[in-house]
Amino acid sequence: MAKYLLLKHYRGAPAAVNDVPMDKWTPEEISAHMQYMSDFAARLEETGEFVDGQALAPEGAWVRYDGEGRPPVTDGPFAETKDLIAGWMVIDVDSYERAVELAGELSAAPGAGGKPIHEWLELRPFLTEPPTVTE
């Protein structure tokens, strides 16, 4: 089994086929989208392929260490940022092909007009071994 991260970009990814921003959707369209996501996760829980997933608020900040005894440095919030991740899901599957299959299915979540979004999802494998450094 291999773990993969599915990232749902609200902004910053290539345009979806049904590219109507969520803030233009009706409450019913938002409910249908959230129900699809919930049903998808529940189905993967039954097969043992779901690990975790969450929707994210648009607000965020960059944080970094600033030295011993000093408070962390922050920069933000950046709700207007070019790239905005709307949520994520971690899956644990038998193969890369299965991860691609599930990402494609998740991409079909309904959006405006009840039509599938066909959004691009970022699929990233978990690092299983530290990279080998040769000199």
UniProtKB/TrEMBL annotation:
Pfam family, one: YCII
Residues of the YCII-related domain: 5-106
Lineage: superkingdom: Bacteria
Family matches, as InterPro entries: Dimeric_a/b-barrel, YCII
Family: Belongs to the YciI family.
The protein's name in its UniProt record: YCII-related domain-containing protein
Organism: Prauserella endophytica
Taxonomic lineage: Bacteria, Bacillati, Actinomycetota, Actinomycetes, Pseudonocardiales
